[in-house]
Amino acid sequence: MASRILFLCARASSRSLIAASLLSAQAGTHWEVWSTPTQDAPGQQLAEHVLHEHGIALISSGFLIQPTFGMRWDEGVILCSGAAET
Question: Could you give the dihedral angle defined by the CA atoms of residues 12, 69, 61 and 20, in that order, rounded to the nearest 10 degrees?
């Protein structure tokens, strides 16, 4: 059984999409990779473009989720910018 991992971007940027897509392309069946969606359409388009240049597909929309209480993952990675501002 694959371990579940969630990439979360606290500011809803495309960082989590890129990280999740990279791991998903390499992980095979070892990881079930999830990501929070982006609210930044230009950022998502840029992420798709960059990944496409490297022959990597954007993570499937079926694995984009806004986590809520009660959901479980084996691992989580939080990607954020401006941490020093908080």
Answer: 60
Alpha-carbon distances, residue 78 vs 13, 41, 58 (angstroms): 12, 20, 18
| pLDDT, tens digit (0-9, with 9 covering 90-100), for 20-61 | 999 999 988 899 999 999 888 898 899 999 999 999 999 999
CATH (residue range 3-85): 3.40.50.2300
CA-wise closest residue to 73 among 19, 5, 20, 2? 5
Q: What is the pTM of this model?
A: 0.85
- Closest to 45 (Cα-Cα) out of 5, 21, 14: 14
